[in-house]
Each structure stands twice: as structure tokens, then as C-alpha cells.
Amino acid sequence: MDNLLSLQNVSWKRDGRDILSEINWEMKKGENWGILGLNGSGKTSLLNIITAYEFPSSGEISVLGYSFGESYLPDLRKEIGFVSSSLSRFSHIIEYETIEEIIVSGKFASFGLYEQVHQEDWEKADELIGRFRLESLKGKPYKQLSQGERRRVLIARSLMNDPKLLILDEPCSGLDILSREQVLELTKEIVNRPCQFVYVTHHIEELVEDVTHVLSIKDGKIVAAGPKHEVVRDDILTETFKLPVHVRWEDGRPWLSVEKKVHA
Ligand SMILES: Nc1ncnc2c1ncn2[C@@H]1O[C@H](COP(=O)(O)OP(=O)(O)OP(=O)(O)O)[C@@H](O)[C@H]1O
Questions:
Q1: Do 105 and 129 belong together in one domain?
Q2: What torsion do the CA atoms of 220, 225, 230, 233 make, to the nearest 10 degrees?
Q3: Where is the ABC transporter domain positioned along the sequence (predicted)?
Q4: ipTM of the complex as predicted
């Protein structure tokens, strides 16, 4: 399996409207992709398709060797990790659970522990706690954690069942600068495992070193997809974000400025 992910001429229509049009995208072994686009550009729709929660209206898809239309897709979902700031809507279910319980529950892809946990599962959760430098939070219930700590716990949890592909959907939204940098540091832990990631964001400075490739999307169509330095350019991002922008690179990390005043 050379391609972790392959989409050919994929379109997704809803209410007579093309939400995604003619998407062609391949993610190969060793690549980690950032996805950039404005609100409403189609990023979540694209994630819903590759995680098999929506089925395309047309086109061919294969993810982790599962061909849509031929394979049993619930098995595919078990091999994909998913972390999204919208997972916080489950907070009420887990507010009294400790970080150990939340991380270990990742093995069963459930919020809340309903199955028997074996000693080796607790040991694995403990290893993740160490790797993600969460030791000082051991024994703490979720409700007492800061937003940044919660995101770090959820990322550790997503690795509990060794996904081959991890989707990070705006994992830094709403975080302060320190918490954001602490979450971004975790990509190093992810790439140390046999796991590749897709990172969705509006903010190009979150495209850290471990992100090798970028797909930019506008109005449901791909503007550009390829190696990071070929896509994160003034012309491509000006089109993606629908306003004149300038990219500045600092120590291999891109930053964006707006070229002139924009009137709403
Ligand atoms: N199930 C659906 N039925 C109808 N329209 C939908 C559906 N899901 C998404 N859309 C529409 O498709 C467009 C793209 O939405 P999507 O959520 O994929 O964008 P996004 O890039 O993830 O936006 P954001 O950054 O705000 O999360 C929007 O106009 C949205 O209203």
C-alpha cells in the first residue's frame, strides 16, 4: 500500500449543491498533510468523506487500503484516530473521569469505560502519559483541566489503539499561544510512531516542520495540493483566503500577513 489515501474525481452534493467538486488527492507513505481553507470551504466535508462518515456522490476513494464501495468501512474507522475541538461536546460524559481513564478509553473508541481494561492497557496509557508529559495531571478529573491540557489528553487518547492515520481537526482552536505551542510539539510524538497525520487549520503558522504537504481548498475545490513549500506561497494563499496575503518563513515555519486593509 503506497498510498495511505487516494481520492479520484470525488464530488459530494447536498441539496442540489456541489459541496466538494472533483477532488483529486493522494497521500503517500511518510507524508503528513495540512489542510487549509476558509470557513465553509469544505474541510470538514472532506474529513467526513475520508473517515467514511459520508459517502461521495461520485468518484473513487481508497483509504488505508479500504476501497469505498467494496470494503467494510466500519473496520476502516477503527484504524483512523480523530481529534477535534468539537469533541468537547462530550465533556459532560467524561467530566469526572481521570485522565488515565480517558486515555485508556481510546482503546475502545468510547467516551466512558464500559469494557474490561487489562493491565497492559493501563501500562500503555501510562506510557502515553509519560510521552505527552501529562504526569502532573494524573488522577485529575477532566473538568479540572485547562483547554490546552484537555487537547493534549485527547491527542494521547487517540493514539491508544495505534491508528495508522490520525486526523487533527483544528486541534489548537481557542488556545492561547503557550497551549498552542505545547499541542504543536506533540506532532513529534505522532511521527515517531507508525502513524501519519492530517492537520486541518485556518492558521498557516500551525504548519510545523512535521507537516510535509499541504492541500488548500476554496469553495469545495482544490486550489493546490503538494509539498508544503510549493503550496504555501503568496499567490496560492491569496486565492485560497480570498484576500491579498504575504507569507514569511521563519526557521522553516510560515507566517501570514495581510497585504492591505480589507473592508467587510
Ligand atoms: N450535511 C450537509 N448538508 C448541506 N450542506 C452542508 C452539509 N455539510 C456541510 N454543508 C455545507 O457545505 C459547505 C462546507 O462546509 P464544511 O463544514 O465542510 O466547511 P469547513 O471548511 O469545514 O468550515 P469551518 O472552517 O467553518 O468548519 C458549507 O457551506 C456548509 O454549509
A1: yes
A2: 10
A3: 5-244
A4: 0.97
